[in-house]
Design a protein that fits this description.
The strands form seven sheets. Strands 13, 14, 15, 16, 17, 18, 25, 26 and 29 form a nine-stranded mixed β-sheet that branches. This protein has 590 residues and is α+β, with helices and mostly antiparallel strands. It folds into three domains: 3-46 and 73-225, Phosphoenolpyruvate Carboxykinase, domain 1 (3-Layer(aba) Sandwich), CATH 3.40.449.10; 228-295 and 388-572, Alpha-Beta Complex (Phosphoenolpyruvate Carboxykinase, domain 3), CATH 3.90.228.20; 299-381, Phosphoenolpyruvate Carboxykinase, domain 2, CATH 2.170.8. The protein is globular, with a radius of gyration of 23 Å. The chain starts with a helix and ends with a helix. It binds sulfoacetic acid and manganese (II) ion.
């Protein structure tokens, strides 16, 4: 009898009608064969899938140019299809599973005609960990097959481990005809199935990432008692060599990757990287919170990545030994055949192609690289990779950082009074939108725990789940809030960010050990200036005061906005929040 996995692949092939089926073994040799095919044979919209870049300066690097309509996540076309609409909640687009499948079946009929269907067996997490998730994705484009090999643990042994089992997570992906009208990214949490058609972009197409490790996994976590979060994981080593672990949630394109690889400006401090996007969190037998990163690579934003902002990433991108490095929608310096993006060098190269391959002429407001252009690179090449990265148990977490992009109101850092208050503040969190999703950029929206686009069930229940986890933790990590993006009246950033963020991390870690002073404000505990490391910090004292300030008189609108957001979730909102809301409201009134 055919194995469940073979049966499923067969079914998909009958519907999508590929010219051939190819089972990937995840080897290096295979990746190069697929890239070669993407350079010479395979086309999207008549254009090659890959272009070779300068192999001397950027070993093993290749460029991919996407269809111009396919450059970011499309939240309006993303659906979470529980059989009950309420389970998906107002935070998700919803369609009844049967109806959704009918629609997708129509869209997928013959969608792989003339193409190869690649079968990708992969694991999210260390395969030896009891928390690992075994998955199979099919796709009809080499770009996705190669990207998945970089981003996940993919290979033959996964297939062996799946064997005759039928409980693997399924991902059906086809780029279809790339027409946005026929694009859908649909999740079926009750069947552990993702069905994505019409897009080749990261979050829409690399199904191990947001679709499986956040939307499906968050729902599994809800049922099983753990959390899947949009968080980086880092170890912070102090001058005595002691390492403390932190997780931090920030919305897409708000500097998570840079924070995960921060190069400290404070002597003696060092950051160890465990993950830059996703963390799975569990309550350990010791009553502490433990974190693992299910991914195996970085899918980071290129613009702004440079030797002065994130030197470790530039190093990572230039290793090129473990896996190929892919660049998507960056520019190209045609004199050297090197990738280029805004920020990589101060000056524009003399001869530059933009992200669509057209000659670039520098003009105000025009960028050579797409604002959401990306690199895909193996985490193993990271010079600051933590020794604990592969630990199947993960690392114990001392502090949780939640943040957003806020040009005003929110101070650089503050600490919540306790777990419940922290969850409440995290639920209120807002952030200005970025180019990582196709919608207006720079608009303030509520983005609780940076999970709004990724929570695979009703967010009201999600808040309640966080509170429940808190009750199970005997030693709960403290919860902090950060905002690197506060501006002054003239629109200039008040805080230099990047390597200087170590000062904030240092205060946070000292707070987790009760070693630093704080000042109580209505919204939480902010650093006392004497407890915040300013030695060697080169910014006006006035900026520092402004960036820490809590304008208690200006919170009216924030509370109204949060209240309107909470109302959407109705009876799913945890009752405990009412009390938190009343306390805060009263404090801010007096
Ligand atoms: O495209 S992804 O969703 O993988 C990146 C992001 O938006 O965080
Ligand atoms: Mn992300």
């Amino acid at each position: 009898m055919a194995k469940a996995i073979e049966k499923w692949v067969d079914e998909v092939a009958q519907l999508t009608e590929p010219k051939q089926i190819y089972w990937c073994d995840g080897s290096d040799e295979e990746a190069h064969r697929l890239i070669e095919k993407g350079i010479k044979e395979e086309k999207i919209d008549g254009k090659p899938v890959f272009y070779e870049l300068n192999q001397k300066n950027w070993p093993n690097s290749y460029l991919h140019r996407s269809h111009p309509s396919d450059v970011a996540r499309t939240e309006n076309l993303t659906f979470v299809c529980h059989s009950n609409k309420e389970t998906s909640g107002p935070n998700n687009n919803w369609m009844a599973p049967d109806e959704a499948k009918k629609l997708l079946t129509g869209l997928s009929k013959g969608s792989m005609r003339g193409r190869t269907m690649y079968v990708l067996p992969f694991v999210m997490g260390n395969p030896d960990s009891p928390f690992a998730k075994f998955c199979v994705q099919v796709t009809d484009i080499t770009y996705v097959a190669v990207s998945m090999r970089i981003m996940t643990r993919m290979g033959k042994d996964t297939l062996e481990r799946i064997g005759n089992r039928s409980d693997f997570i399924k991902g059906l992906h086809s780029i279809g005809d790339l027409n946005p009208e026929r694009r859908r990214i649909m999740h079926f949490p009750e069947e552990n199935l993702i069905w994505s058609i019409g897009s080749g972009y990261g979050g829409n197409a690399l199904l191990g990432k947001k679709c499986i490790s956040l939307r499906l996994a968050s729902y599994m976590g809800y049922k099983e008692g753990w959390l899947a979060e949009h968080m980086i994981i880092i170890g912070v080593e102090d001058p005595n060599g002691k390492v403390d672990y932190l997780v931090a949630a920030l919305p897409s394109a708000c500097g998570k990757t840079n924070l995960a690889m921060l190069r400290s400006t404070l002597p003696g401090y060092k950051i160890w990287t465990l993950g830059d996007d996703i963390a799975w969190l569990r309550v350990g037998q010791d009553g502490r919170l433990w974190a693992t990163n299910p991914e195996n690579g970085f899918f980071g934003v290129a613009p702004g990545t440079a030797m002065n902002t994130n030197p470790s990433m530039i190093e990572t991108l230039k290793v090129g030994t473990f896996y190929p490095t892919l660049f998507t929608n960056t520019g190209v310096n045609t004199d050297t055949n090197e990738p280029w993006w805004e920020g990589l060098s101060e000056d524009y190269p003399a001869n530059l192609l933009d992200w669509q391959g057209n000659k670039f002429a520098a003009k105000e407001g025009k960028n050579a690289a797409h604002a959401n252009s990306r690199f895909t690179v193996s985490i193993k090449q990271c010079p600051t990779l933590s020794r604990e990265f592969n630990n199947p148990e993960g690392v114990p977490i001392s502090g949780i950082i939640l943040g957003g992009r806020r040009s005003s109101l929110i101070p650089l850092v503050y600490e919540s009074f306790d777990w419940k208050h922290g969850v409440f503040c995290g639920a209120m969190m807002g952030s200005e939108t970025t180019a990582a999703a196709t919608s207006a950029v720079g608009q303030l929206r509520r983005d609780p725990m940076a999970m709004l686009p990724f929570c695979g069930y009703n967010m009201g229940d999600y808040f309640g789940h966080w509170l429940k986890i808190g009750k199970k933790l005997q030693i709960p990590p403290k919860i902090f809030f950060v905002n690197w993006f506060r501006k002054d009246e003239s629109g200039k950033f008040l805080w230099p960010g990047y390597g200087e963020n170590i000062r904030v991390l240092k205060w946070i870690i000292e707070r987790t050990k009760n070693q630093a002073e704080s000042t109580e404000t209505h919204i939480g505990l902010t650093p006392s200036l004497s407890s915040f490391e300013t030695e060697g910090l080169n910014i006006p004292a006035e900026n520092l005061k402004k960036v820490f300030s809590v304008d208690e008189g200006k919170w009216d609108k924030e509370l109204q906005d949060a209240e309107a957001f909470f109302e959407k979730f109705g009876k799913h909102m945890p009752k405990e929040f009412n009390r938190e809301f009343d306390i805060l409201e009263k404090k801010l009134k007096t």
